[in-house]
Amino acid sequence: MTTDRYEKYDVIIAGAGPAGLTAAIESSRRGLSCLLADKNKKPGRKLYAAGNGRANICNAFYDRAFYYGSDFIDKILMNVDLTEFVRDYFDHMGVLTVSKNGYYYPMSMQASTIVWALRDAAIMSGAEIVSDSEIIRVESDSDEYTVYFKDGRVFRCNSFILAIGSPSAPELGSADEKSAYSLFESLNLAYEPFKAALGPVRCDESFEMIAGVRCEAEIRVGLSGILEYGELQITENTLSGIVIFNLSHYIRKMLEENGIAELNINLIPDIDEKSFRQKLSRMTVDYPERRFTAFLNGFINDKLAVYFINKMIENSIIFDEKTPLKDVDIFKVREIYKMISEWNVKVTDIYGFERSQASSGGIKTELINPDNMNVVGRRELYAIGEATDVLGKCGGYNISYALYSGFLAGRNCLKSK
Length: 417
Known about the structure:
Blueprint: E1 8-14, H1 18-29, E2 34-37, H2 50-53, E3 58-59, H3 71-77, H4 82-91, E4 97-100, E5 103-106, H5 111-125, E6 128-130, E7 135-140, E8 145-149, E9 154-162, H6 177-186, E10 191-197, E11 201-203, E12 214-221, E13 227-234, E14 238-240, H7 242-258, E15 261-266, H8 273-286, H9 292-297, H10 302-314, H11 333-341, E16 343-350, E17 358-363, E18 381-383, H12 397-412
Parallel strand pairs: 1-2, 1-9, 2-6, 9-18
Antiparallel strand pairs: 3-5, 4-5, 7-8, 8-9, 10-17, 11-14, 11-16, 12-13, 12-15, 13-14, 15-16
Helix pairs in contact: 1-5, 1-12, 4-12
């Protein structure tokens, strides 16, 4: 980029993720001169990987529960139907969406479709996008903001928008934690420290025997009553999958309070004890010589069946792995059922930013006006997307918030006088 050292723009945006790109589109469409700066080689780098490269951009269902009880999101949702907003926004860009069990994706099922649509719309609206351009400090006075870049360039603007994202997934060019704090502090903004979320957890036992298993499960965190249902993925000493990602925020809190967190995993949430007992009784009559392991495999993955058979042997519930149905003690059925419907696992740690999809923390939401994303009491300063202390669960909640918060900021920032 070649420009005068103190060239002035109506608006400068730090970060070209979904929030920053949308803010650039909306401010440029209104005739404002806009500079969109990103530290990476191309805009939307992290967005390319969203939804495993398919970009789950919104969901059919929204309420504060999907944002961990955020009061700020409650106020946002009073003014917008995020499903309708996101789908209409991309429809006007020629991107059709398709629903997969309530999760909305571009019809192409490619995240690149979303990135290209946002980038092209920003450029064609008149925004100037500069890559390899990291903003490290911002100073403000009564009339404008002075923006300092890492390479020594300095620009001025009437409106400044923070859209730097969070430190999660550093391999995708996300924000550096210390650099983010430094930028916030240069603007005297109060923030919550970033913490990795939507990621896997480490456990205190080896799952080598069941590594690679994927299954549906209902999981409760300790005695809290907090439940999630979804896919569970198991590796050697790690639990992962959407159900764990969505619980990781609560698991972290329990780890911080107690040093350890317990998960209660129900591998057969649709089967009650009575149904389980009746099925065992019928199978014992019809196939008395069939191995009990094979019976369990009718409910759960075969690796899991062997895993729990070993636990039952250790606890003298059955004799060995060859135990036939006819030799299963009917008085121990409740114990057997509880082992697979109330599997207790101790979590010792949650993985850091390198394995997380999003982060909690960021600029405190009590400082932000939910009607326009303006930092209250600060002239023409806006904070949007993951730079703010808003965390959504898996399912398009973080992307849709990023898009709408960017839309609000871009629609409300003002032209230089």
